[in-house]
Amino acid sequence: MKETGAQASVSQTRRGQYSDGYATQAYKLCLLGATDRELGSFFKVSATTIGRWRKAHPDFGDAIARGKHAADMEVAESLYRATLDRVVTTKQAIKCKEVYYDDNGKRVEKERIEVVEVEKHLPACFRSQQFWLRSRNPRLWNAKYDEADDNPTRAVTINLGPGHDPDGDEAPC
Length: 173
What we know:
Layout (H helix, E strand, L loop, with lengths): L4 H8 L9 H10 L4 H8 L3 H10 L1 H25 L3 E16 L5 E16 L3 H11 L1 H4 L32
Antiparallel strand pairs: 1-2
Helix pairs in contact: 2-5, 3-4, 4-5
């Protein structure tokens, strides 16, 4: 397996020894979603050593935290966008055909390709909505949430406006 330039510099330092350039590399790896175990694999050390480096070198720990936080925010924003209906504009190539008759009465066809903008409706992703709501408010949205029996059950009345009363004798006009 061929080593990248960054990994070659890791190989050149003594195994388990921290180097000043590691903070920048760790930040970039965390932006890509690297875990502590994957950082350890990249730097050829254990995840425990990564933990020690985080404590001993505040710049390294801060770089990891910033990288993970930035990556998490990107994913959270993407998840949130997936929970909403949206319209996106894309470009699509279409074939245009022109048919006419020349001076001799012969049918002539000309074709050309045009690129047009097309608006597409993307419906919200139900699973993303479900995950978002269950994560944000498990008490209200999680089917597995066990509420303590100390809280009394309250009746909820919802006014849906005028309409047919199934208990009444007459239907509204």
